[in-house]
Fold these 4 entries.
Entry 1:
Amino acid sequence: MHSVKIGLKVLILVVGMLIGGAAMALTLTSSAFSHNGSIPAQYTCEGNDISPDLSWGDVPDSAKSLVLIVDDPDAPDPAAPKLTWVHWVLYNIPANATGLPQAVAAKALPAGTKEGLNDWRRAGYGGPCPPIGRHRYFHKLYALDVVLPDLGRPTKADIEKAMKGHVLAETQLIGTYQKKK
């Protein structure tokens, strides 16, 4: 009987944690493609080269800002990758933001959001445009315990250095693309 009471107490504790106190994981989704799914051509160099919509949730309560980095670790050839190509860098996204609309322009970013440089050496989104094969595009979202200082036009490496030791949570959404032409 004693072990039944202990077992029941553990079960009640676990259920209570699941209902009221368990930490949720940071999430990132898009209505344009599913995780590990194919990115539609409209978001690439073969289409309108616009950013897909992104939505996120379960940002830690203690987060002060978010960072979004989109990159391709399969460049130039997924059979023999040599570098990671950066497609988009955003930082100081307000922690209370819940996403970005499709084709978001710089002036429509959430207040306070700053843009870094992609590997075309410009700010803003640059869509998939793989020279050969099917590439993976990692949309990485980080919740930070600080608002980063104004870094000017930082690269991905600059952002990663600045956020070191400040990441509370992170998640990623991976899409794939292979040119049709």
Note: The chain has two helices and nine strands.
Entry 2:
Amino acid sequence: MKKLFLFRFFFALLVSIAIISLSGCSDPAKVALKTADANKGIAAVEKLTDQSVLAKVAVEGKNWKVRGAATDRVTDQSLLAKIAVEGIYSNVREPAVEKLTDPAMLAKVAVESKVWSIREAAVEKLTDPAMLAKVAVESKVRSIREAAVEKLTDQSVLAKIAVEEKDSDVRKAAVEKLTDQFMLAKVAVEDENALVREAAQKRLNALRKTGRY
């Protein structure tokens, strides 16, 4: 009787484990996250509708094809920005940026991403003046600030950058887009960098010749 009891106990235990295992495998989110099999993972992704879960798979999934498939199904702009910033692999970061249209999210990526090509792609897509100004002032990367300045037209922001920016190349880029005669004259005399002063004087002379001041 004791042996029969033990046999039934262990049999029931094995059945329970199998059921739990099968139940876990039937969860498409778990499969998409954990499987190394691309076909199984993509099939699981196609069953997912929750945007936050898809974004999680895009960032954390084990298989690169599965991560890419998940990214393709994400439409939420804030989650796409999250993928672009936090994604470890280029096959999810780049498509995420390409799908971004929200100016605030593009600016977020341009400022926060640690990958130069992703920051650059975000700036290239930006057209919103306020968000370009944000990137031009807040980015910690000189080349990104400069790229944003080159797309700026807001004279008050350009004037602020021309005077306050620490990097001379960025100041020079701002000066070359200024139309304010007084500000250009000020920079031409006061800037500590000779190339910036020269650029300011050159811009000032050009505006005077065309009567644009």
Note: The radius of gyration is 28 Å.
Entry 3:
Amino acid sequence: MNSIASNLVGQTTLRRTLSILVALLLVWLALDGVAGFWVGFGFALLAAVVGATLIPAEGRFVRPARLPAFAVFFVIESFRGAIDVAQRAFRPRMGLDLQLVNYPIRLPAGKPRTLLVAVVSLLPGTLSAALRADGNCLLIHSLTGNPEPAVRSLEAQIARLFAIDLTDGD
């Protein structure tokens, strides 16, 4: 590897390490406050270095300014999903419209697609059942009919989070 490429890799790793460190410190402060800050700093630094060096970098990163909007969407949909489950548990006669739907994923491979597959199960009445071998289609089990509008909305939120333009796929 030439010195320019080596320098760029080093800068990218340093940037990733610092980003992870800041994120972990914010979580530590939110959960524990300033008490034990230096202990939290030590563990956050260790985790950031390990994470940035052992986990391969991908070309797509979360845009921090877009994280609050996604967090609000995530919390609202999580509560909607929890309420739906509770209603179905206490009202067994609620109608079910069971479906298996193949959803063509428009997000690129990597972190955005992984996040979509993981979060789909938090939408009301949905479950990620399988991902096709090529990774371009997600099989979704739905209790409430067609889940495509909700999944499309989730996909759009993730695209905004990663600054991905999905207009070509519409």
Note: The longest helix spans residues 3-32.
Entry 4:
Amino acid sequence: MKRAAAVLLLAYALSAFAEKADQDKPTQIEANRMSADDVRRMNIFEGNVVLTKGTLTVRADRIVVRQDAEGYQSATATGAPVRFKQRQDPKEGEKEGRWLDGEALRIEIDDRNQKIELFDKARVNRGGDEVAGNYIFVDQRSDFYTVTSGKSGGRVRAVIQPKIDDGKK
């Protein structure tokens, strides 16, 4: 039971973007291998890892989940790339929520500080609006995002779709 609780972190952290109904759905994880180290409070899922919880799907080569002495969890997902997709709750005036999807070579999730970091070739798309850079930082408490190009000196990219008001057509 302790091991199963530890893997819920990734689903929980990404659920800040999700449909509220996803929170009540079970988390399912499939992988080629799983190992657990109760002394170090660590679970490792390797090989074609697929995590699903409601509308959330995460695909990675490897997911490592750690739990500190106070019960807070952190997770690192790696892949070529790690990909996630999830539907958000509808905003006012929308019939259904927009899809949020993203990818990076590494995604780190910190439950204690409610932060998500996407490293290396990071991209997040929400309903057609997209940001990309070498690093994306998300503070879930304030819904604050930062995108940087990293040390390589590259540039960040954003695509912002026009908001169409159906009532003005």
Note: Residues 2-168 form a domain with the lipopolysaccharide transport protein A fold fold (CATH 2.60.450.10).
